[in-house]
Amino acid sequence: MKIVANTKASSAEEVPVVDATPVVSLRDEISRARVAPGRATVSSGDAAAISFLRQFRVLMGAARLYQRNHPRLMEILASAEQQLRVVLALQSPLVFAVEPNGIILPHYDAKAGELLNDPRGELHALAEELLRSGICSLLFTSQINVGELDLFAHEMSCVPRSATPGDTSSRLAWDKWLRDHRVAGIRLNVPTERRDSLLMASLVSGVFAHDEAPQRALHLRAKAAQPVASLEQASAALRILAKLAPARDPETQTSAEDIARRTHSILSVSDRVPVALIVYGVSNVKPREGETLEPYLGRLADALMLAFVKQEFEAGRTTALELTPLVVRLDQVRNDAVNGGAIRFGSAQHDETRVAALCERFWNTLPARQKAKTLRSSHAWCVPAAVVAKFLEPLALAFEKKKSEAAGREGRAVLLAYTRSLESEEGKERRTVASGLAELAPQIERLWPHPAIADFGKGVVQALLVETSPGIAGLLSAVVESLARVSLIKHEYAEFERILETLELSPRDDEHAHISTLVGRILNDEQWLYLVEEALANRPLNPVIPRLLRRLPERLIDRLALLLTAANGIDSLPAMVRLVHATGEPVLGVLEARLYEPRRQRIATAIYLLASSDPKRLAAALPRAMPSWEWSLQDLAVSELARWTNPPVVAASAKAFLSTLLEAHAMVIPCMIDHLGAANETSAIPLLLKVAAGECLGLRDIYFRIKAVEALGRMRAVQATALLLRIVRERNGLARSEPAALRAAAEEALGLLEDKPSSKRTRAVEKAPSKSGAAHGRPRRYLRVNLPTPLTATIVGTHGGAARVRTISLGGAFLESDRRHAVGESFRVEVRAGLRRIQFTAVVRNVTTTGTGVEFVHMKHEDRERLRRLVEQALD
Fold this sequence. Notes:
It contains 39 helices and 12 strands.
C-alpha cells in the first residue's frame, strides 16, 4: 500500500524559509543558511513539512561541523524546533515514510505514492542518509522538545557513512537508543503502510458480510438498481459511513477483527434502506490501487450523495433550482456526522468549492438531452459554466469546422436562454450568469455574432446599463469588452457600433462613470488602429467604419498625420481622402480648425487632407490663416490648390490668392499670380496692372512684374494695352526704360491681345493641348523643350551637388541628380549654357526615380532674359 504525498510547491510568503541551496558541500550550505522565524500563517501542511525537513538536514550537517554549544548550532536548532512546531500545529502526529528516492508524507486521500516536492534534491540526500542510518520512517508528536531534537540530530551525525541501508541491527539499536534516552516525542520505524490497507479490506469485507444477514434479498435488489430512498434515509447512510471510519491516530493499533466486528455491530442496528444504499455504493465504487481508507470513504460518500440527487432529479422531485441547496444540505449532514466522529474526512463547515465540484460532477453525468432541456429553460443559470462550456464546445466546433447549421442553432439557443437570466431580480442569478459568460468567451466567439441571436449582445449591454451591483457590473463590463473585441475580429462592424451606441445611452452621472471607462477601453489604441487600418485598406470601404471613426475626429487626424510622415505615407493619401469624405463634417471641421494652430506638422496635415478632400474649404480659410504661416506652408497650400482644374475650385482658389497676395511670401507670389492669370480672374486685373507698372508697394521686383504682365496677357485684358505699349516703347534717352526680360514679356502679351503671338514659343504654347495627370497636376503655363545637349547645373546649399538639365521651360526644369530631394524643398540652382550662367531659386514639385521636377519661384531679370533666349533657340 503506497503512501500519499502532496506535491504542491510552497511560496516564500507561505512558509518559513531557510535559504540553503544544494551546492557542492553541506558546509557551504550551512554557512550561508539564513534562519527565518516560523509563522503560523502556513497555507499548506506539505510546504511546511518540506521546509522542516530541509532545516533538519541543515541541523544534522551543523552537528557534524560545530561543537555542542556553538552559537551557530544553537540558532539552527531553535529554528528547526520552531519550524517543527508549525508543522505539528497543522498535522499531529507528523509521520514521514523514507524511500530510496525521496520522502513521503502520508495523506488520507486518493493520491498515493507521490514523493514530496524536491526540485533541488535535498530531500533525496536526506532520505539516503536516513536509510543508511537504519531509519525507514519518522514520527514526531507534540510531546517533542528541543532537547530531544538536539539528541536525535547529534546521534544521526555519529552514524558512519559506510553503514549498510536497512540493517536490522541498526533498527534494534535505534529502539534501544530511544529507551535509554527516554525520548517520548520521536518514534522511529513505525509501520505506516499496511495498516490502512488492512482497515480498507476489513471495512469492505464487513459491508459485504452484512449481505449474509436476513437482508440478502434487499442486497440483491441493490446490486441491480439503486434503492429508492428519502432524504432522511440518504442522510442516515452518510452518518453510518462516518461511524464506520476508525480512529486516525497512527499509534492506535486496531486489528482487522476489531474493524469487522465494529462494522457488523453498526450495520446490524441500522435501518435497511441506508444499509442498502451503502452496500449499493460499495458495489459500484471500487477502491483504487494504493488508496487509503479515508479517501475511499470520502469518495463513497460523494457517490451516494450524487446518486441520490440524480434519482431525485430524474424523478422530478428536485428541479435544477433546488439541486444546489439539496447538495449543500447533504454535505452539511455529512460534515456534522464526521465532525462528531473519531475521524474527519471532510470539513466541519460548508465548503462552497467542494459543493460546486459535486454539482459539476452531477451535471456532467447527465445525458446531453437532459442537459439541453435544462439549458433551454429559465433555470439555465443553475448549470455550472464549465458544464455549459463543455456542452457548447462540440456544437461550436461543428458549426465552425463542418458548417453545421443545426449545431449552430442549438448552441445559439442555449446562449440566448442562458443570457435571459440577466433580467432576473435576483442578484445571485445575475452574478452567476455574468461570471459564466466570461468563462464561455471561447464558445461565444465561435457562435456569435449571428443574425439569429441579434439580441444577444444588446441584451448583455442593456443588463450592464441597469445593473446596480458594482461586482456584477464589473463582470458584465468584461463580457461586453470581450464581445466588442470579437465583433471587430470577425469584421462585424455593425454589431460593434450597436454596442457603442447602446453604451452611450447611459446617463452622464457618477453612478455610470464606469460606462465611460468601458467605452474608452473598447476604443483603446489597439482597436482604434485596427479600425484605421481597415479604413485605409485597398478594399471597398465599409460604411460603418467611418461612422465609428468620426466619434473621435482628433484621434483620427493624429493617426493620419503620423501615417503621412512615414516614408511612403503620401501614397496612402487617396485612401485618406476617401476616409475623410466618408467621415464628413466632424473631421473636416477639425481639419479646418487645425489650420490656425501654431504647430507646423498639424497645419501641414490639415493642408494635405483639405486640399485633396475639400479644397474650397481650404481656400476660404486662407485669408485668415495664411499670414501667420512660414513660407513652406504657404507654398504647400498654394501649390496644392493650384493643381485643381475643377472650375469652382479654381475660381475659389483665385479669389483666395487675390485677397492674400500682398501678405504672401515672396517665393509664393509668382505661383499665385500665374494662377490668377490661368483662372481668368478679372477682379484681379486692377491689382495686376499696378504690379506690372511697378506701382504696388512690396511687389516691385522685376520677376513679379514679369509674372503680372504674363497673367494679363493670358487673361486678354484689354485694359493693359496702354501699359504694355509703354513698357515696350518707353525710352530714357537712347536706352530702354525697362529691362529686356520685362519688355519681351510685354511684347508676347500684346501679341496675345491682338491675337498675333509674336514668338514661336508663344505660338507653340497656344497650340499645345492642356496637359494634366499624375506628372502634371495642373495645365502647363510654359512650354517645355528638350535640349539637344544636356546642360550642366550646380545645386547650391547644404544638400547641393552636380546635376544635368535635359528639359527646361520658363517656369521650371527637370534635374537629373544622384541626390534625392523631397517635395517642397527649395534651393538655388546655377545652369551653365556655354559662357552664360543662369541662376534661379527653385522648389521641388515632384520626384521620380530618374530625377526631380522643380518650379522657378524667383530669378533676376538678366537670368530670365537668358533663359528666354535659351528656350527660343531650342525651338528654332
